[in-house]
Structure formats: structure tokens, C-alpha cells
Amino acid sequence: MTELVYNPYSFSHHENPYETYRRLRDEAPAYWNDELEFWVLSRFDDVLEGFRDYETFISSEGIALEARRGGARGAAMMIEVDPPDHTALRKTVNRVFTGRKVALLEQTTRDIISGYIDSFIKDGQADLVSELTGPFPMDVISAVLGVPEGDRDELRHYADKLLVREDGQAKIPDEAIEGMLELVVYFDADMARRRDGQGEGLFTELAQVDLDGRPLTDKELLGFCVLFVVAGHETTTKMVANAVELLSRHQDQRDLLVADPGLIPGAVEEVLRFHNSTQYMHRTCSRTHTIHGQTMHEGDSVLMLIGAANHDEREFGPTAEVFDITRRPERNLAFGYGAHYCLGAQLARMEGRVALEEILRRMPDIDVDHDTKVRFHSGNVTGWSSLPVRFTPAG
Predict the structure, then answer these.
(1) What are the residue ranges in the chain where pLDDT is below 50?
(2) What is the span of the domain harbouring residue 260?
């Protein structure tokens, strides 16, 4: 048997990690990488408990392996704040970013997606990432924040730069640091206007709310804006492309959705489980902790391996490695769990559902050119940077 090695930086562009994940769950449920000095938890119950126990596994030392222990982090984002401060910040955002507002965005989202499909539907082919799934989520999250339409391409460029990673390198590249700084500068330049109540959207609304009797600081506001742009853009971009790629490899499942669009919400959940865009979250151990006979120490890095947990047969049964849009699991960890459960989960689900509804309604025979697709490279984000598709042209 080959040596078991898990290193998120060494996965090639075309490697499927799930066989490694299976071995981690079976052979080393508490795995230690001696070279890069991090632990991995890969079983569903262990990752669930890791997310639940935010006192032992803290977020304030960075949520990505390359940004741990004071590494380049950029804006101070709520996702890297621990309770009780995190709890107060989250309650503040929940007061203005409500489920009702997400519901009101559905028609805007549908119009945006339809407009992009209109631009290539007559061609019978497209690069789904560059022509649809890449641009539309930034338009939606910009509408949420109140970013003017003329600025959205600029923000998309900054967000794309921020996510650049070099194959095999643990260090955050200069281009990614530059992208983060450009996002911060953009929102900081608009801060005074938003404080005065000018402009629409979540940015202006958050600039007016109180946190325990005081306004949010500029640093807190910038952190919110950067988090919404990065998470709102990246999660949905990868999720929708992952969905189309999976349905192309499981055309019986695609045909089920075409015949019955009412199955699409369940299909979104299965895509999130089977090929979630976020494969791990980094935590830092705050105290001695023993699990599976192994002892973690204060200051140790721990990866909560979402991708492995969502394929754990202990939770999902013997068909855990099967992509099945009719599966109805009670839970999965695609959006985390507990205190740091993804703030934008409802928005992402709505965007994924609407995108698949429009794609399958207008391109029911959509198929991927699997020979030319290009995998996105990152330590913890998985998806496609190019996804060429073919379909019957529509007039």
C-alpha cells in the first residue's frame, strides 16, 4: 500500500481527491502532516463536532492554511472572528440581510442569468465559466451590496486575483495579496458616502446600524464587504459549474431535471454534498485535545475536511460515492455548521437553483467537452476555470 500523504498544495489540476479522502477516513481519521505541520479531521462526525466546538477550534488565526499564524490575511472578516464578538457581528448583519431580501432578489438573479445566456444561446457552444457562471454571481452580490453596474467588472477582476494560487506553493502569491488590497481600497474610497446614507444596498444599510450601541467601525464594514464579495462570488461560480459538469457525466440525472424542474432544489443539495467548492476550513487548536488516540496541542493547525466528511459512508450510507439528485440527507457540511454557518447559504442556494432552472430550460441537452475542461487550482477551493459546453442552438 502506498504511503498516505495529504497535502492540499500538491493536488494536481486533474486529480480527484476523493480516494485520498476515503483513505484518510479509514486509515488515519486524525492525520498529521509532519512536513507542513497540520492535523486533518475527515470523518463527518469529527468535522461536525469540530465546527460545533468553536472554543477548542478557533477561527481567529486564519481559515485557510496559507493564511495561518499571522500570514497575509487582508481585511478583518467576520469569518475570522470567534464568539462572543462573532455572535454580536452576525446578529447585526442578520438584521439587514434577511431571508425576505434574498427572496426579493430572485427575479433580479433570473434576469441577470437570462441576459448572459442570451449572449451565447444562438452559438450552440460556450465556455460556461467565462460566459455565465463566472460573471453572474458578482452581478448578484454587487446588487446585494449596492455596487454600481459600471464597477462590477472591476470588482470581479479584483476577486479573481485574490483567489490566484500557484501549484505546489503554500505561500499566498503577490497577485492575490494585491487583489485583496484593491478590494479594500475600493470599498474604503466609498466609505464616507455610505456613512452619509448615500447609495443603496447592504453596504449603506450596515453603515447605519448599531453594534451594541455603537456604529460598526470602518474595519468591520470593510471586512463585511470583502467577505460578501469573495464568498458570494466564488461559492456560486464554482457550484453552478460543478453542477453542470456533474450532470454531463450523469446524463440520466440531467434528463430527470429537464423532465421535472421541481427536483432542482434537491439536485443543488446533492451538488453541494458531492462536489462542494470549499473542501476544507482551517482552525487553530486553542488547548490540548485528544481524538482517535492522537493528541493535538495548543497552537496546532487543524483542517476540517468538508469534502471528505460529505462522502463519509458512516453518514451517507453505502452510496456515499454515488451522485444521486434524489438523495435526501438530513444534513451535509457544505456551508459549515454552528456559529460560523455560512451567512450567504440561502442566497447561494437560490442562485444555484435559478441558474440550473434557466440553463436546463434553455439548453436541455447541454453537454461538457470533458477533454478540454480545465480544473481550477487552489488549496481548498475546487471547481473549473474553463468548462466548454455544447448544446442545440436556439433562435
Answers:
(1) 12-14, 72-73
(2) 18-390
